[in-house]
Amino acid sequence: MKICLDPGHGGKDPGAVGKAGLTESSCVLAIGLYVRDLLLEYKIEVKMTRDSDVFVELAHRCAIANNWGADYFVSIHLNSDGPSAAGIETLYVSDNGKKLADPIQTSMVTMTGDRDRGLKYRSDLYVLNGTKMPAALAEAGFISNPETELQFRTNNYRTLVAQSIGLGIVNFLGFKIPDPIK
Fold first, then answer.
1. In the chain, how many domains are there?
2. 10 Å Cβ neighbour count for 66?
């Protein structure tokens, strides 16, 4: 199984920026690298669209996945709106993308306890349309919310979010997930 992970933004494009200055691009890169490591533990092949703070054009992100022959594409982002906006949502453009998005969304909400904003069909997102395989875009929280931004400043929360995304993918692929240690 081949999964292409796409930590959004990067380099000259920081993405959304929280009130205290935390950038979306730095958070989602850290999360994406953790997700990669988790998937590798399950012997899943992983290709990253970026593994450092570099800018990658949207078309090139899609080309990386398409040329590699990825089976699935997962883009990782943080949302931005007003300071009171909260929650997690996962976006998709096709029925197969929705099947991938559902366990990712469920896992993120269950593991983080954040508000479930649901699955959302989005036909206007380049990376969901430009990839030939089923794709999902995880919006793991609102960086515009000061409390959420504070959470994303901690390695523990980034790791938790990464584990939730990774286990959502693993669950989707049908792997047996060990019970969490209490």
1. 1
2. 15
